Amino acid sequence: MTNPRNRGQPEPDLEAATGAVEQSGGAQEKSASIGIRRTGTTFGIHKKDTRKTGGDLTDYTKRYGKDVVGQEMSSRGRFWLTYLDEALVFDEEMVEMHKDNIDVLLVFAGLFSAILSTFVIQTAQNLQPDYTAVSASLLIELVGYQRAAADVSSIPLSPFYPAISFSPSLADIWVNSLWFFSLALSLTTALVAVLTKQWLHQYISVVSDISPLGRGRIRQYRYMGLEKWQVPMIIGLLPILLHVSLGLFFTGLCIYLFAL
């Protein structure tokens, strides 16, 4: 029922009002989200983004203004400024992702190499004669000669006599071969990880005192270099090298425990 006082006045459009409220709410949410940019993480810890953002980052007309007619592709035109902004967002996301993976690999490879080196130091001694045991055996043999000084009977040679050739067991050879190869792969992974991190640092290094056209060309030249030298593929192969190194270590460990 309509109120008699409101007769003759048009009824409010409820659907239009509801739509206006929803649009205003969406606009507020959009305005609240403007200027927020995702930052990279290292071991789950978010890095602080100190860059100043504000306004609609995709509205480059408002940010840089209109170009003069006929100079849209000039060295300081809006095209190159837009290209640099979009490339910066892409490069930062790519580099942060690669750096996070490389940092995890470096920590794991360092710990694994330290542990593996301890095993290698212990087992490598089995590849050469134990000169302490040789000295003890020769002393026992010398005592035997002194006791038989008045006797003509001969004394058998010690099994550790230096003239007798020494040969390590097959298990020791396999264990040390696997563990040395595993250590080499682990150190290679760490070395390549450090090199790729330096490449990424040089890739995003800032080039100043030149026009946007020059910065855009240098950025594209660097990106083409990364693609040419297969840097993303090299970074993707680093975990595989580390997995192979772990497999060799566990294989040698099984042989070592079985031979005990």
TrEMBL record:
Q: Which UniProt keywords apply?
A: Membrane, Transmembrane, Transmembrane helix
Kindly indicate whether the keyword Transmembrane helix belongs to this entry: yes
Stretches the record annotates as Disordered:
1-33
Task: Spell out where the chain crosses the membrane.
Answer: 104-124, 173-195, 231-259
Q: Does the keyword Lyase apply?
A: no
Q: Where is the DUF6535 domain?
A: 80-258
According to the lineage, what is the superkingdom?
Eukaryota
**Protein name according to UniProt:** DUF6535 domain-containing protein
Q: Which species?
A: Armillaria gallica (Bulbous honey fungus)
